[in-house]
Task: structure prediction
Amino acid sequence: MKKIFFKMLIVANLIFLFSCAKKNKTATTELPTVKIHNWYYFSNEGFQKIDLPQNAPEVYEKPWTESVRITSAASLVDLENKTSEFSAYALVNKKGLLCFNNDKIELYCDNSIFLPDTADFLVFSDGKPVFYLYRSSFFNSDFNQTTIHSTRPFLVEFAPDSKLFYPIVSYSNLNLKDEDQITGYFWDGKTWACSAKKIVQNGVEFSYFCWQPLVPLTEACPALGQEIFMFNPLTEDSYKKMILPKLFEESPEELKSLLASIPKEFSFYISWKNPSGTSPENYSHIGTSDNFLSAHAGFSAGKKYITAVFSDGTTYIKKSAENSIKAFRLPLLPKGFSYGEMAVSGDTLYVAWEESSFFKTARAGFISVNLKEIIN
Result:
């Protein structure tokens, strides 16, 4: 994909042509720019405004499982069970949960939840954010000595009304021991499919299983024990079918329509946030280009917007009340920086950014964008 350099966001009526072939020219209609975005970085105190990501205070690189960064973000699309003023969230590893109400931002923390483990995979159950915790045995040499499986939380719920975090499912509830570590899951709204690993003498041993709570998920708690769960075996192949990306041609019609202008030769991988709040669905398209970008896409609350943001900042957005699709580029990031997870609250787009190299992350934060200036 051709690189298109913008100092700031281009406002309204932007004609954007994707092209990976060098012989093609990129045509744009450039209009006067205005400041419609704000940068933030994560600090010891929480998050702070900054003029540019590269001007944030430098921090030591850490493995991505141990660094402060946005690991997952999503909008609460279904408003039927909405119980608070927040319509979008971003999970900040080792820090807390960012809660968005249009352009208002709150960060809620609980060191007992976030400091010991890695937090990832944000979903919604009955309108409440739920995420999972795990600890990398590779980057935590004291893993077996410090974990107590009887109390170690697996799933944690954030209660928007009280602004508190509650463990709802523990490793013990799932009949897992100290040496077991859940490495991933897929939730279809009813059944949870999990992969777990443990270190054995000759290497790493993986296992797979399904479970389903016999009570509403947000009514579960570790003290209820294993009797409220129904378990079923799962094969490795069955689990992989759930999590591996499908062909982009199999993606929802709304997503295919949003990205219809991308040429067939362009290669990409996209994580689609299911409107029901369950685990994201992944899709990929393999073209002829050498440039392979990742993207995140989903609806905002009430399906007001559908948005897709690529790692280089290329963004597609459509307002449900309008037929036209807008395409624009977020501000160009320095080398070694990239965009990541995204969510929309009201008329504000939030996109994660981070400075990374291979499996390590240094500085990280997010950008907020006023969509009214782009769509209207």
Residues 37-375 form one domain. The mean pLDDT is 86. Residues 236-243 form the longest helix (8 residues).
